[in-house]
Hints:
By secondary structure, the protein is α/β, with parallel strands linked by helices. It is about 60% helix and about 5% strand.
Amino acid sequence: MSSLNHHGMELDGLLDKYLPQNGSSKPCRLLAALKSIAADIKIKSAMGNIEKFLPLLTTFLLTSVAFRNEVALNQPKRLGIRMEPDRNQSSSGAAYHVSRHEVRHFVDRPEMLDEIDRVLGDERSQLPRIAILQGMGGQGKTQLALRYCGIARSQRNLDYILWIDASTRVSTMRGLEEISEELSENNQGFEDSDARITFVRRKLTSRNLSWLLVFDNYDDPATFDLREYIPKGPLGYVLITTRNPVAERIGPLIRVTEMTESEAMNLLFKQLDAAEDETNRNAAVDIVRRLGCLPLAIDQAAAYIKAEGLPLADFLSHYEQSARDILESIPRLWEYNESAPIRNGEESGDAVAKTVFTTWNLSLTLLRPDTHLGTLKVAILSLIAFFDPHEISEEHLKTYYYANNPDQQPEWMYLFIDDRQQWSNIKFDKVMREFLRLSLITSLNTERKSSDFAFVSLHPLVGDWINLRQNSDIYRSNFERFTRLLAANLSSKFWEDPLDPSFFECKMSLAQRHQMEGHIASWMNLFMQMRPNLRPTMVDLGREGPVAVTAAELLIAQFLTTLEIFDENGLELLQWLWDVCNVVDDQMLPIKFGAGSLEVNWLCILPGLTEEAKKKGRERWQYWRTTPGTSGNDIIHTGLLQFLTALTFTDSMKDEREIIDLCKSELETLPNVERNMTIRHQLLAFILLAANRLGEFDVYDMMFDTIWNETAERGGDDFRRRIWPYHCWFFFTIYCLGRTCDSDFKVQFSHAAVEWATDKYGLYHYRTIHFRILKANALCMAGRLADAKAMAQDCIAIIISEGYGSYTYARAHVTLGEVLMKQEEYEEAYNAYNLVLQVQGYLSQNERLQILERCGDAAKRVNIGLADAYYTMRLSGLNDTDNCHEIINSTMDSWGIKLRYGTQKARQETLELLADGLGVYGIEIIYHKDGTPQRCLRESIATINLGDPDLSRRLTEDGTVHTALLERFGMWYGFDLLIRMAVQLLQMENIDTAEQAFHLAKTTFEKVRGPSEIDIASFIGAVFSYSEIRFEIDYDRKRLQDISAWARIQILEKRGEGMEDLESWWEDKTTELLSLMELYMEETKSQWGTRIRSKTIGKLSNMFSRVASLKPPRSSPSQPSSSLQRGLGFAHNIATSSVGPAVVELQDRSTLAHSQA
């Protein structure tokens, strides 16, 4: 670069020397020209030297340009209002004539500022370039414009930045007059206002001036055309703020949307001194959502919080009670201002504080509420304000119109009606578009593509503002109309089952249900505030029948039931209906009954309120039994069925017994005639359910035979289709699946139930889905696993697409899990069951415990720690009930899984489990020296000390212990638990106590009457196991021979019809015992000990290896996931330990099980 500079200077010197100077005479210039010719060689030489460096010069220049461009990309983006290149930039900046002030805590919205810059910088647009900020009041349009002006001022690209209040023609003219003083020179005088405005327009039209002119609050284009006042200068830029989208005729529209939650929270915290911790951030999210992320409202809320010294978490409760005060309140220094309203046709020209209320009051005045038409439009807005603001369908108003007689129509309804008295979409759209222009609604969708109706949305604060400006009488009247409107929309969709008064269904699409859910929630909030002053809103259902008139509030509660929405507010609504309805009034009686029944239903489902449901159910039933005028109708019977339903939810054996007693008592009063069949069979169905839970299968079978015979005598399937309600079909289908052995019959009956439900409710109704799930169960039991799996998966797909509740969803996944278990897809089955536990809904405690059992059943095939965790959780939950059957079944499940650990600690835990189980039979048992009795879950009948040498004598004299051990709960007798306890004690070398337990169990078994084949095989198998272990201790051959003979006698005495296989089973077991004995006789004691330990370790190792999928069985080729393999690592180490599983302690097994779960 130095050489290039040298040659350049040489060329410059030559040119200066030989070229004539400016102002030289002609002779001098001629002489210089002649000399230059002579010097041409020197000049050519200098030029040649420079040309050698041209490539280097080119590279340098390109590099320089790229560097400058890179720097420019990293600089803040320049505004669109940039200066023309041929103008000299002023160093003093623009003349700034802006009468508004930017708020100190402005939250930057860079995407909006960029969009303004893009529109104003578009060189293809008209001159002057125009951008219009359009949005609802309080959205921050003015503040965005102020920020843009501030940035333009700091960049010094303009001669003038000017601001005009364009809310009216007068304010616009006044603003231009004030600007004339800024633009005029030497105190130029003007004749009048027009002269001033003309001067400003002419001045700004000049080609030498650049300017930005803001027209703020141009909200009423109908009153004047702003284009009359916009200068046409080529270097000018115009920014307009407006609420009215009609302003887009002037220029490109930029819609100012609501702030994001993040921006809104930033604005809130900028004004407060509150720490941004988790508690405050959670409260802030709720606040900005409730205020619709409206900047002006958030500013006012922050000012109120500071003034009152409120914690953020307390603001919303204040807002719900004092919304008007908050939305109207402002601090003394307030940056938001607007022009004072017109009074008596004149403007004061003063500025007033701008609040949320004043913002929308301006929009309301543009509806001309002082005119008759304006009054009707305000009435429409007043009704719309009660809806959930997010999606209000035209359908709601249209349905309400057609539900009323002409003389019942509100006057404003005719704004939507054509000359033929039919609903007009065109007229509806016209009114809503006017509301949209004034920002009284935030959106309007008239496409009508996905439905036949338009949709509007409302800012939540607009609804608050409209409601707060109404006086109490008008507000109450509008709320009643809103209630009637909701009832009209619900009643047109409701369907009731005449055979099942407790059933009702609202036939709506999923989208319609979601929309109505939001509106009902809005209604409920208002109802809770107003209920002391309300009475039931009676509505005509427009149909014939015993219930032609009902209360709108009852329809709303019924709708919430179909959505599975049960909460405290709903219960208070139902209690209110019960309290205010007088049974003396014939119309009120069915409403009171419906409210009482629904309340009991809800209490059954809500967690922790089953006892309250039982109490209320009993009270309601007794009330109707003693109320005059109810004896001749079905109210008493229906009330009893409601009470029986409440009893089924308590999971109490005492309540199950009461169900049977009440049903039998009521059945005695019902003659066996056709008109009573529906109620008779519903009562019999409840007996079926209770007998099944009590394990009284003889009663269970007898009830089904009674029902089956009664229907068979009257026409079989046809009769059942005609008189059975849903619950009869449901309970009897479950009976067929659980008690009948004929697989084909199970499939046929469940198929008949599906056909009945499809005809009655439709293919995709949730009740039909219930029966399709039962049919999938039947197919599974029949071995048609592929069909069962496909049907279960199909049901799940329908449940998801239709948005059905958690109960149906859970049942479908349980059935899918059953199918997967039979297909030996244990991991998938576990996932299906576990998914049910995660469902957010209202699973009863009994249903939850059943799912825990299924999770354990699936998990024990792949992970014993996981299975142990689920069985333990289930048993813990059952111990809070009096369901002895399930407690014992669950105890034995846990016992079986803990045995598989094979450790001393696990054996001790199994002993404790069995002792706890015996407590269910009323027996307190002591099984070690200085021991204390285990706790008793029932009233104690006897205490057994297995260390007492006189135990056998005393038990022979007192038969209460034998009686208790002969009681059966679930699948187990008391002596079943005792014999297994004996085995455990023997394995732990407590020989004396084990012998006591063994003999007590054996002598008790001798007294049992009518055991099943499984009962006999299970007990005698345990006896043989005990005998094997006992033989290892003393090698007593005679003992084995005596046990074999005893077992054969018991089998011959107790076996019943169809138990012929038991004798061959006994022969096999005896052969095993004798082989064991011969083996002992052939080998030495030490050799036998070594062999048996080796054999035991090998068996355990194989078992744990298969479980861990380290050595998969032939029937289960699939491998579990790596996570499950890792979960079994510890158990496998135990099984393969060289010291044997009997002496390895499983440390902190509960922690392991928890981590695996």
